[in-house]
Amino acid sequence: xxxxxxxxxxxxxxxxxxxxxxxxxxxxxxxxxxxxxxxxxxxxxxxxxxxxxxxxxxxxxxxxxxxxxxxxxxxxxxxxxxxxxxxxxxxxxxxxxxxxxxxxxxxxxxxxxxxxxxxxxxxxxxxxxxxxxxxxxxxxxxxxxxxxxxxxxxxxxxxxxxxxxxxxxxxxxxxxxxxxxxxxxxxxxxxxxxxxxxxxxxxxxxxxxxxxxxxxxxxxxxxxxxxxxxxxxxxxxxxxxxxxxxxxxxxxxxxxxxxxxxxxxxxxxxxxxxxxxxxxxxxxxxxxxxxxxxxxxxxxxxxxxxxxxxxxxxxxxxxxxxxxxxxxxxxxxxxxxxxxxxxxxxxxxxxxxxxxxxxxxxxxxxxxxxxxxxxxxxxxxxxxxxxxxxxxxxxxxxxxxxxxxxxxxxxxxxxxxxxxxxxxxxxxxxxxxxxxxxxxxxxxxxxxxxxxxxxxxxxxxxxxxxxxxxxxxxxxxxxxxxxxxxxxxxxxxxxxxxxxxxxxxxxxxxxxxxxxxxxxxxxxxxxxxx
Amino acid sequence: xxxxxxxxxxxxxxxxxxxxxxxxxxxxxxxxxxxxxxxxxxxxxxxxxxxxxxxxxxxxxxxxxxxxxxxxxxxxxxxxxxxxxxxxxxxxxxxxxxxxxxxxxxxxxxxxxxxxxxxxxxxxxxxxxxxxxxxxxxxxxxxxxxxxxxxxxxxxxxxxxxxxxxxxxxxxxxxxxxxxxxxxxxxxxxxxxxxxxxxxxxxxxxxxxxxxxxxxx
Lengths: 530, 217
Description:
heterodimer; A: N-terminal domain of TfIIb; Rossmann fold; Dimethylsulfoxide Reductase, domain 2; 3 domains; four-stranded parallel β-sheet; B: mainly alpha; 42% helix; extended
């Protein structure tokens, strides 16, 4: 959501508008004056000496027409060519320069090549040097170039309605750092977007070290955390499943739009397509087969060979049935079956479909895989890990990536702290919680209850309106940073244009809050020694 | 019943037809002559902020086109030189000439000199300089004898017909690549040009597009 316009209630005078007057006579409503203006034109105005008005306009119209006959207005306008005063090196007008960077997002920094003309970014395409994505990007990455030139983007930092200079922002951050240093961060809280950047994680660690009593929370309105949370509950480590569809012959997807929505979709769709491409009917047996159970008609569903309609809420019960059928066909006796039967008792679905699907999956041990949508509850993902183990998929068609240990509170935890009135200063980095925080939290009231709210954002939006300070952010094409792709590969985020407006980079903001002396983002990123 | 129309009205249809034909012919001829670039653009010679004399610099001093128009063989766009290029020489020669004041000012302030554009292809036409000069099409073919111009003017029409004439028979215009920037070069004879041109078109696989999308992309 862009900035919100609040329309104040109008008082009566504002509806009619202020009353203007042009002479004292008009102000006191002099009857003589009233009589005078009623005669539309002052004396003699309608009759020029010698010519009458009608005739005058006729002649003027004729002379305009005559002027047009000379076609003076048809000339091509004069255009100027403005070359450089001193031509910079390596710039050839008309030949674009490409820079490698990556588009930051919560789970997956997509590697990109940005086309620039005379240093102005104009088009984003995927970086083909990164082979899993093969030079592809998703729609969000493609469209992110438009944000750079968005006329609605925030151009200045502000306090209330008063804009403040960059120097004042530095002072503000310095003061916060100094104020909370003595109390070890008591009363300080952060709410940030998720990020893949190792440098940011390093600075956050530093913040937690010097402010051990502060709260660091992260929030994404649409997140893909559940598979990782399930892994932590089962294995005690944060793991991320990585599917290898080039090695997979049978796929069962439980409400997962893994070709279009789930992170890793770019690699998934390429790999999936490779197994679909066959030259002739003899090769048909090499093709993969996709079973899709879903509530929406998704892009993945459109590719499915067998598609079962089922509401999202019924997927846990369906997964339970699936496990029961798997255990039955593998003739494994387990008390789990009885447990799960209770859970799935209400589901009315086609048992034949499940039976055939499981038979097919089991017929390809080590070459079949089950995946579930990230929005499904953690229990479903736990069962999916179990199913993949039964199918001998773990280690073959699905591997697990270790996610570095990194802890952040949730927005709900932060909400509790805010409710208790323990927070004096809340720093919101990115996001737009007033617009998209869970409704039960009643975030707007919570935010209003805090003494001082500092909001760092790209737009002056709902959250900024309710904040004490708004700090203007730079675009990622104007910033230094780093990040990881979905499979953990480290990629850079490098700027290709100077900030169009006075803004601050995210890493610099955090470094200044952490009291790091050299807060220049380039130096911060370089310190990681890649 | 009396005649409604007088007798002379019988000839009106004939007169109308003849008049319409004459008007059509006059409009067609008029538009062909007066509304084409040949009449409207050729000879356009605006006053430039600095009276740069091409004939002096090229003809008398022997400078190459590419000393100033550096990127003509590397970019679709042939650049106008920056002020620093002028100052390479003019920080020593004619240092205080009042004619060069705008250049010196631009050089010291960093603001560009507002040269007036003479040749402009419409926005719906894509023209690539590098492709042409690297395949033996001389500057001369489109810009005329710039080396002899004291003040640059629009010499050729740059109409679509003008482009197509060459795209249809490139062998009549193509020349050795090392002679592209030598505006004084001439083939020995017309026959010689055609023989040489045909060979070059074949060897270099020159295939100028004649489809609409070749230029109107």
